[in-house]
Amino acid sequence: MTLATEVEASLFEVIDPELGVNVMDLGLIYGVDVDDNNNVNITMTLTTPGCPMHDTISNGVNYRVSQIEGIGEIDVKVVWEPAWSPAKMTDRAKEMLGIG
Amino acid sequence: MKIDTNIKLPLAFILYALLALVIAQMIFLFRHDLVNAGQFHMPHIWMGSHFLLLGFAVMVAMGGMYQLVPVAFLTPIWNQTFGFVQFIFTAGGITAFAILLGVKSGNCIYGGIVAIIGIVMFIIQMAITIFKQEKKNKMTLFIIGAITCFFLTIAAGFLLAWNIAFGGIASHSTILFSHIVLGITGWFTLLIFGFSYKLVPMFSLSHGFSMKWAKPAFFSYIAGLITLISSFWFGNDLLQTIGWLLLSAGFSFFVLDIQEILTKRFKKKLDKPFSFALLAILIGFSIHVLAFLFKISGIQDPIIWGWLIYLYVMGWIVFSILGYLYKIVPVLWWTYKYSDRVGKEKVPLLKDMINNQLSIILFVFFIIGVVGLTFGGIVQIEIVVFIFQMLLSLTSLVYTISIIRVLFV
């Protein structure tokens, strides 16, 4: 398993407290880049720019990734473009939220 | 960029507000005789109304804005220490002002001055914070409009308090009507409109809506406010009718947007407290239309209009706040207690923080209480007024306890 895959797998454990669904299934993670020194750049978004959980969720992502053995510097960037839409959710997330 | 506000700041405002809600309802209960007689221009009723509107509604609005403005506008609060000092001035000032209004009206200006200092500090805080927002949006327009109305409400209120203390200012009634319209219609309605554009899509997980009616809603509403207030100053009946029409049109445009947002929502089953806040929109809209219809029908009975204002305050402003508060407080406390644990361990979800079943009972009791009290007040049966005011007082108390219990989860 590559480190990038390991990072992505760990993010299934970071749950959006309002929706009760993890950030990966919600489609909030736009990109995970790991360089040769194991430094990680994560690009993510939130369901809405005015989300009260702005810092909480990005801090949660940062913390969970920092627990992976051998990880270097972590940079979590929250972006608003492209905007999140429900189309980015996995079928599992849609099912959990009762969306057909 | 870190934009979270220190939780103690919004919580201080909200806890004071909940206490003020219970005090206001208790005052109305003890003076239910005045409520029954439709004597709203009496010191004890002033005391209760100012505990309700300033102590509860304004303080929740301030606390809510300290929490929501940074996340909704992606701009940190300008100075949080200034915010705590502002809380002390505002809470102390409002308490002194409301009590003096009830027990020694002639001296209420002294409490009023302290409250005004606190409110002006809040306006400065928000103005600087919003000014720093990089990308202004439609929501900014509503919030700036609301804050402007708030400032004018306070200025008019100061003139009224000055007149009660020292006299010498003519047009007391005209200033009073302007004060009421600017305060409950301008400040609160524009504020709720503005935040609804953020909160309704967020709580309903709505996407792809246009908000195409936001600007017409804002400008019609502002035009309605100016026209209605002008009608008081010029004594022009036609202007008053046009004012109510424009306000109703503004509210209708807002409702059209909310309807579209809800149609395009992805969360089919909405939370009960949020549904209650949505019901408040329907009530607010109905009251705007009723006010216009009453005006063109020539209904001038001050008791009818007094109860219409009461329904507006309770059904629109207070119900909106009660609904949203049930969502906001768990978010605040959750952020404080669990945000550092996200990703580290299993943490509760927001819906686990509050008793949703109890919220249904409380909201139903609030509706029954307001409807029953209004009916009792219009037909002027004292025992009916007493029973429903008792229901409202007890429901407010249990509501307050249920919110405070969140802090022990």
List keywords for this structure.
heterodimer, A: alpha+beta, GMP Synthetase, Chain A, domain 3, three-stranded mixed beta sheet, 3 helices, B: mainly alpha, 0% strand
N-to-C terminal Cα separation of chain A, in Å?
33 Å
Low-pLDDT ranges of chain B: none
Strand content of chain B: under 5%
Largest sheet of chain A, in brief, is: 3 strands, mixed
Q: Portion of residues in helices of chain B?
A: over 70%
Number of helices of chain B: 13
- Topology pattern of chain A, helix = H, strand = E: HEEEEHEH
Just give the CATH class of chain A.
Alpha Beta
* Total number of strands of chain B: 0
Strand tally of chain A: 5
Report on the biggest sheet of chain B. none
The radius of gyration over CA of chain B amounts to 20 Å
Return the structural class of chain A.
Answer: alpha+beta
CATH fold title of chain A:
GMP Synthetase, Chain A, domain 3
Strand arrangement within the widest β-sheet of chain A reads 3-4-5
Through-space gap between termini of chain B:
29 Å
Uncertain segments of chain A: none
Which descriptor suits the 3D outline of chain A? globular
Note the beta-strand portion of chain A. 15-25%
- Mean pLDDT across all amino acids of chain B: 92
Report the mean per-residue pLDDT of chain A as an integer.
88
